[in-house]
Design a protein that fits this description.
The chain is mainly alpha-helical and 115 residues long.
C-alpha cells in the first residue's frame, strides 16, 4: 500500500537490531561505514524512515542518526494487553493503518527537512 502512494518507497527487514547497532557503533568508532550506512546510502538524500516492530520504538530510532534521516519510529511502549495479533497491533499503533499514517508523516517531514 505504501508503494502505491510512493513508488520510490523501499522496505528493509532487520532481523537483528542489536547486531546492526553494534556494527554501526564499531565501524563509526573506526571512521568506517558499516552495514547500516551501506544500506541507507541507497536512499535518496533527505529520505525519511519509518521503523516498525513489536518492540520499543527506540530500538531502531538510532537509524536516523546513521545518515541524518528524519524518522518516525513505531513500536510497543507499554505492555499488558491481551488479544489476537491484529487487535494488539491496532492497540499498539503498529497495524497497517498506523504504518501508512507514519509513512505519510515521514514523507512530509522529509519534504520540510525536519523530523
Amino acid at each position: 500500500m505504501v508503494a502505491e502512494d510512493s513508488p520510490e518507497a523501499g522496505l528493509l527487514a532487520i532481523t537483528s537490531p542489536d547486531r546492526l547497532h553494534r556494527d554501526w557503533l564499531a565501524t563509526r568508532a573506526r571512521g568506517a561505514t558499516g552495514v547500516a550506512g551501506r544500506l541507507l546510502a541507497r536512499l535518496r538524500p533527505g529520505a525519511a524512515l519509518v521503523t516498525v516492530g513489536d518492540f520499543h520504538p527506540a530500538t531502531l530510532s538510532w537509524l536516523g542518526a546513521v545518515a541524518g534521516n528524519a524518522i518516525v519510529p513505531l513500536g510497543v511502549d507499554r505492555f499488558g494487553q491481551s488479544g489476537d495479533i491484529p487487535d494488539l497491533y491496532r492497540a499498539y499503533g503498529i497495524d497497517t493503518e498506523a504504518i501508512l499514517d507514519a509513512a505519510a508523516r515521514a514523507c512530509l517531514a522529509a519534504l520540510r527537512g525536519s523530523p
